Protein 1
Amino acid sequence: MSRHQADPALVKALVTPERVHRDVYTSPEIFRLEMEHLFANTWVYVGHASQIPNPGDYLSTEIGGQPVLASRHKDGSIHVLRNRCPHKGTKIVSETCGNTGFVFRCPYHAWLFRTDGSLHAIPYHRGYQDTDLMASEAAAGLPRVGDYKVYRDFIFARLATDGVDFESFFGDSLSSIDNMVDRSPAGKLVLEGAPLRYMHPCNWKMLVENQTDTCHPMVAHESSAGTAVSVWEREEAKGGKKPMAVEVYAPFMAPYDFFEKMGLRVWPNGHGHTGVTTSIHADYSAVPGYFDQMVAAYGEARAKAILGENRHNTCYFPNIMVKGPIQTLRVFRPIAADRTLVESYTFRLVDAPDMLFERTLMYNRLINAPTSIVGHDDLEMYERAQLGLHADGYEWVNIQRLYQPGEAEDVTDVAGGTSERQMRNQFQAWVKYMTMSMTPEGAGLREAAE
Amino acid sequence: MTDITEKDLTDFVYREARLLDELRYEEWLSLYAEDAHYWMPAEWQQTDPRLQVSLMYEDILLLRIRVERLGGNRTYSQKPKSRAQHLLQAPQVDEINPAENRYRTWTSFHYAETRGDEFTTYAGWARHELRVEDGALKIVLKRVDLVNFDAPFGNIQLFM
């Protein structure tokens, strides 16, 4: 049998305040437990309401490897359902987005379901006449997820039937989503364009941790951002305005001191963000007309407050990151212990100038695409870490930068921007959501197996 | 060299691929006009590089950054180095327009990129828009459409 089983004590032993055991990145058994427990107990991002604006619209995705779909019902409500027919298990939809009309029709035997998931009809009715089908779970429609919630058009779901409610799970961390939405003069975002999809040969948590690792850019990205700065310094002498692309690249070379002063905030349940006082997104050129639009929409004081908030990366536990000032959302989809699909989405600020969306797209392609030189730098580091962790002799990963003994866990707090506090925060939440559905019998089973 | 022939155009496309395969990036860059772009769309029959999602849409400055980065001492994603190989179908000439100094070709290709033990192939179509500058053909726009533009790729570090 596997080493860890569903034993909460063994899972807890993988995380200390200052370090984590390599098994959290390399063990297929831990990965399986993450899918079974962590991704069932947490609120996971499903999609954006603007992807399914009309009745009958749907999007399909996955949570922890399980197929789900979100649909827009005729009354305008959104429903998150399991994407499998209760008959034989066939996936009801396979395209990422589409419109199904009034009902979902299983392509295998034409069982029909309304867009709120309820059963509409089963053909060849007499085949089930003398059975208890209609009283069984199979006739209850598309299987439900535990709970789902649409917050300012962002759709989240929790697979587990019982668990932490949406508001308790996210709390004040929703302020980062608020800020991204508020940056639209209309207070509305539209997800526009397909995501950039980038496969990584590493564990999903390495990508999540890297989002708040402010001591790697000036090192790992010296090759890309550093070269961009030096090439531009040569070109600049010839005259001309600093291009948007150089504005995007150059701040990656900011010194430690800049990132330290930028600050970092942690929230309970593993959420957190870098860029409390300022960030690498604070000094982009103004987009003509945009500030005036914001003042007209919100008044000057509120417009300044919204645009003065320049949060860098906000990580929502377990596996997404949003950039409010850039209007991007990245999903780190776990595929296997050593394989992660990153999908990077872009949003248009409704009623804002096109140039903002142009910058959003440029940022995404310069930083998050499989053709991105910044992405190449990062992937190389993740891949080396995934391979390096197989070295015996020392089995731990260190996360104690700016750690102070007695550091409070699972709280709202602000720290220096170069701290690894958010990584520690994530791993505390990791233990909590991994083990909350493990029964003490897990330990018993393991002892029996030994 | 005002009378550009079909052979001039196809020879140009082959020469560009050869420079890339031989990792002669400075010479490759010199094939591009100062206002040129290298574009890899991320949508089917995409029309707009600016307000639609692309994998790449880079001007000469950004291409130069890439070329210099590939040779950098601290470019760890190039330790070991990548290599490339193009297999081109005969380019089709879509336009010979001396009056407007515009020449266009369409080339179906398979492309392989390798690094260390990894070997990845890609397939697609390259479109070249060219013009004559000081007697020589230059690239104004190179557009590379992959057949699976929406697939989850790993690193694509070189040029197709």
Protein 2
Amino acid sequence: MSDQEDRSSPVDPRSDDERDEKPVTKKRARVVDPDEEDDVDDTEQVTKEDEKPDNDNDEDEDEDEDEDEDDEEDADEDEERGGERRRKRRRKQKVNRFLDVEAEVDDEDEEEDEDNDYGDVAEFIDEAPEEGAAQSDYQHRRLDRSFGRNEEEDVQDIVQRLKERHARTASARYNGDSDMVPQRLLMPGVNDPSLWRVIVKTGREPAICASIFRKVFSQQYSANPIEVISVFCRDSLPGMIFLEARQSAAVSAAINGIVGIFMSKGVSLVPIEEMAPLLKIKKKDVNLNPGMWVRMKRGKHTGDLAQVVDTDQITSGVVGIKFIPRIDLTPREKRRERAANGKGLGSNIKPPARLFSYDDVRKIYGRQSVRSGAQGSYFFENDEYIDGFCVKDVKIAVVESEAVNPTLEEISRFSGDDQSTAKFDLSAIADANKNLTVSVLFPGDQVEVYEGEQTGLYGAVETVTPDVIAIKAVGGDVHGQIIEVPSRSVRKRFDVGEHVKVLAGKNANATGMVVEVKGDVVTLMSDQGEQEIKVFSKDIRKAADTTNTAKQGGLYDIHDLVMLDSTTAAVVTKVEGALLRILDQNGASKSVTPDQVTLRRDNKRFAVATDSQGNDMKVGDVMKENEGENRQGEVINIFRSLFVFLHNREYTENNGVFVARAQSLISATPKSAVSDLGKMNPALNQQLPLGGASLMPPPPTNVNRNRLINTLVVVTKGTSKGLMGTIRDIQGDNARVELKTNNKTLTIALTSLKRKDQKTGATYPLEAGPAGGFGGRPGAGGYDVNPYSGAPMAGGQTPAGFGGRTPGARFGQTPNPYAAGGIGGKTPNPYAAAGAGGRTPAPGWGAGGKTPGPAYGNAGGRTPGWAAGGKTPAHGYGDGGKTPGWGGAGAGGGGKTPNPYGAAAGPSGGRTPAPAGSMYGVGADAGGSRFGNGAMTAPTPYGGPNPGVHSAPTPAAPSNPYTAPTPYGAPTPFAAPTPFAAPTPGAALSAPTPGVGGPTPYGAPTPFGAPTPYGGPANGGAPSTAPGGIPWDWALDFRNVIVEVGPSTRPGTRAPLHFQRGLYDGKRFGHDAIVGESCRCVSLEDASIIEEIPAEYLRPCYPDAPGQVVVCIGGGPEQKGQQRTTSYENGGSWMMEMEQGDMTALVLDDKDLCRIWKV
Amino acid sequence: MPPKGGSRRTELRACLICSILQSTNDFMTQGCPNCEEILEMRGSAERVAECTSLMYDGMIAMIEPSESWVARWQRIDKRMRGIYAVRVTGRPPADVVEAIEARGGVYRPRDAVED
């Protein structure tokens, strides 16, 4: 059979009919029936013989041929080819004729063979007699037999046989070898022709294929046939065609001269592995099935949903659909009116879609316009209407079958019930979802098979492919097995009670609980609006929890503070679509719509409230309730400093938000607690005897450590050593330091930090200021005639921090009620202001008329005057508080009268102490009077030293007070200083030469003046504490003490480290007198050695045995300057012998003590 | 067989069995050159509409079916030369499929993807 095909296709271009009737080539020998063959041959021979006379006449072609020709002549382009064909055929005809003749002979030959092959039985029977017979006889007999057989068979038989043969031929076409072979075995091999890709003009691919076909065809019998095997194009591969050929030359020849081929783009060989995919490509087929939903693409129904009702003519490109018509039911008059207004009938007004109603239409269009059809259908304007729907055959091209996404509303209209969404044509909806199912399925989804063999099967999706999904069955016989089902017969399954989220549609992102499942429609109770929502199961997913569906960028965000009315505030705990869930200040939770509330655009950052301990709290602080449930949370909002809204995500109620009263909260994290106000109350301390002062310890050093924040520091230890940074926060003993170099914030121990002066670059100890300032530290300032003694140092070091603090501390320690003022507002003391104003002392004190004497205020104001100085102290005193007096003092200090104060102060100092002391001792009344007293009694000594100090040029001056008065008469300074301290600042502050004051511990003014004056760079080398808290220049404060020579303790000094290269190191000297910044010292070993040794080289000589007379050079102001006798040593501390007025034994650190030289 | 088509492809219909492309008129007058035995479309417009389709994809101009891999892949290597579609959408009437199977053949839809 295949032989036959082969023969016919390449060589014989004739049609089947033609071929069948035409004589056959000799190869036909294999045809089954020789008789039949003969028959045919005979017939044909006759025909041929008939033909012979009019050999050249074409008209003897058969009918089909003629028709073919007619057809061909129709088309111009075909003409040439037609002619060609005709010629060819003619030529062939001759050949055939010739062959026919031959064939006759051949056939006879073959008959012999066939006979041998065939009539087996007959010949077997005949053979026996034949054996004896002659060969020629056999021939004759055989002829007879065949003739006889021919006669036997009637025409019917022949026809039947013919038919059978053709039938076999036909069926063979579908039974060929390759038909049974799976396509994967048909993959191209190396022996197959190659494919060549040619780029052509887009849209012309089929035409070009056909052109090439014709071209190849026309040249196949020419001298140079084009050996192209096939040409094809794909709709999905626009702009290219593929030629199958064995050689590229054939391709070039084939495409040469064809219009629309881009020769320049070249011809490329398709790799063998890409050949099959070229033909495999599947056009996205429009799979229209009855019941499917489509959308109209054209006409006035554009966008309308339609349902496929009929696909019988799908191969003709026509599909029957039904849809809701849009018939213009405008009354005729109105339409006329409209037309008159220029709005034509064909205006673009789209009539509303509504079901066809016979009565309505008849009313408008007239009875004759509507024709009744069979089964209650109507014909109106050539369209058929059944049950109100328009049923129409439309071209497939005018409907859109992809991404139809019918909504429930649309579908419900088709189901005939406009109003209720409860009634659904479930199958219709299922159909609607068919195309969409796969895209919304994900592995893990619970699904249910609702059609096909596996109907009712439940399972979880394992894998998803476009058409088939594998599900792991749950329950039933196949439990646990993985079963493949068509994806379109599967729908998501949800159980009542499940919590789901809507993925698509107008309710997208809503969450809710499934309350009903009906086929594909799931009803859920929304978490948000608490209403029922009906959704397709394909549009929902199981949701783990209630998602916050807040749309970012909305007006209200979670945790926003809103106002319900002018007095009621609430916090948004949840945003649910259009609803806000809020918690109001009374703890009530409710849902409101955004228009029921107003947003309170507070700046959260500034909202503060005071907690139960009086500490303030801000948004972001973690607070704890100290009553009730003891809930803890982060402050998210504060309303009127009363209601605090907190959030803790561990609480489920109200999404973790709760409200509490500020007064019932305490900080959950230890905070830099402001110490008990009571402790700061000077009145309490006043009543204590002298020693009682110590009952009020200096405020913890971490008080207000925040002041360090934003301080420029340098790291002195650790890995970051040497790096500069800014303190951003203080956490206990650590600071968060934001490094300048890389913007990193590190936690570094405070002890590893040093303050850095921004301008000079000089570094200072971070806490040195306070240490000195507070003076409460052992070994620090120590007891001094002037409680402010410590201040200068501090002042010098931390100018900024100091102003407020130092005095505060100082005042806090001293019984002076005004001291509190220094604390800067923490006490109710009216002087607070003054204290704060301490930085601008003049007004402060001036205003504080309560200060001992307005004179001081004046003094402050006038202080500048004292620069002129020169006035004698007497005058100053006489003036009773006129600062000028001080000024004079200063001046005096300045050196004009080397020791004016020495005299003046000395005596007064000597005198004052007693009364003052007693005053304190009895805890006499309030400050006012004490001040008065102080002022009266004490001014002198202080006036003296302070200015002196300030004007410090001649160190002699400051030293004077010491030399002159009762040197260490403890009480004196004690009593006196305080009152003076107060005034002084004024002067100091306004003092034009503040820097100078630095070195002297007497800088009573300093604490006040401190901030500015000492901050100055001039102070770069400002005093610092020596090891043990003793300032390096301590020696300048004392005389008649035993000192030891050692390395310089002055920070940043330019002097050599050792005095006279260490000649006297370790040697002890008696401190005789102060010369500038040096001390005249007499060697204890050799009285002839008298050296002026700079104070920086001098260290105190600590007591080493009981019974030694010592002076307290460090420690608190209450001790400093006291002269005592050592009694008992214990671990570096000395207990002093009791003295009159002592309440308890005084124990001092030995580092704070210095032996007195000449007792 | 004269090559057909190419002018306006909308006029062409594809045989649902062998996917050959011809004009409706050709199908009417000559039937399918390959499958007429089974389809018997000649002279019947209705039968032509049933057994051929307007919806097809791609076009193959098959010149030497016996040599062609394309033809083998498309299972038209034993068919006439001519113009074929790569894919044809539609299903022939049931009797056609039965007829093919009765002759021991296999009906392979022309719009399906084999593997």
